[in-house]
Amino acid sequence: MISFYPGPSQLYPQIREFMNAAVDTGILSVNHRSDAFVQMAEATMNSLRKKLLIPDDYQIYFASSATECWEIIAQSLILSTGSIHLYNGAFGQKWYEYTGKLGGACTAQVFDPEEEPPLPQNTDGKLLCITHNETSNATQLSSGYMKQLRILCPDSLIAVDATSSMAGARLDFRQADIWFASVQKCFGLPAGLAVMICSPQAVAKSKAIGESRHYNSLTFMDSMMQKKQTTCTPNVLAIFLLGKIMDMVPVIDETAKLLRIRKNKLLNFFNNQTEFKSLIANKNVQSDTVLCLSAEKKQLRQVKERALAEGMVLGNGYGPWADNSFRIANFPALEDEAYERLIQFIKDFS
User: What total of structural domains would you count in the chain?
Assistant: First the structure.
């Protein structure tokens, strides 16, 4: 079975081998305060820095999910200052709404999926929260927009949900202060781990705020990570697997280039079909790692059912687009041959 679902997604085939290695090395049974764990965690973080080009002065943390990262950010960086959330889809909206439920003084700026978000004015030092790659409608922010945002808002920290793009797209980490992603998408790993990357300014801000009421307050996470440890017993297997995958994959520039080429090929194909078109017409905001194809409701049901019978899982539409679209992951773990098979299936379907 080939899964094109945009998360949890298709695993790298080497995961089976790496899981056996984790058992054989005994790392799954070691104490998470031991030298063995510290060495393994440090090796994983070093490989992350090398392959994703993370600046040396940015700190890496491990959490359970991107959703937990929303919570950590709200508790440690938002509640005392407020936040502005710019979004055009369901996941950015969920981040905004969840922050509000936690008591954050947050405001929303909703923008059209066919356009880049407007550059915010009068931020008053509030944390800016933005989704780099909106999985629900397959849009993404350009590097040019991120640079403009950083220049325009020098006194605000910028937090970026990069769940559907980290490890698949080239991210300029210096253009924001907090980046986070779950590993069940472009990392090609099982769910249950998130990577959170923070600038020195974000860490300093968390210390100045001094929020310490929660076990995963950023200040506590940072104090433990100085020792290459986590606040609580972590998902040791996931951290081990992450390190193995990062050792295996090329530097992100190479991966990102391959995914862009494949994205363009897929969209050119689909946009020449009668039944399916890209949900997003503006090429400047189309995601490199997730495709969202519009379809009539009857055709949508048929294509998903027939694909499943052929051993392929297509992703459901999401949020406002649930009934008129399906989604395809363009993630590194999927080989080109899988997409050739998908293209042939669509040709036969049409």
Answer: 2
pTM: 0.96
Two tokens, residue 249: 């994959």
**Residue linked to tokens 């969840």:** 98
pLDDT tens for each residue of 287-326? 999 999 998 988 899 999 999 999 999 999 998 999 999 9
CA atoms of 44 and 228, how far apart (whole Å): 10
Tens digit of pLDDT for each residue in 30-54? Answer: 999 999 999 999 999 999 999 999 9
Asked if 235 and 290 sit in the same domain, the reply is: no
Judge if 189 and 108 occupy the same domain.
yes
Q: Which of 208, 213, 225, 195 is closest to 102 using CA atoms?
A: 213
Q: In whole angstroms, give the CA distance from residue 289 to residue 273.
A: 21
8 cis-preceded (ω within 30 degrees of 0) = yes
User: Are 192 and 238 contacting, i.e. CB atoms less than 8 angstroms apart?
Assistant: yes
DSSP for residue 126 = P
- Picking from 222, 248, 274, the residue at the C-terminal end of a domain is 248
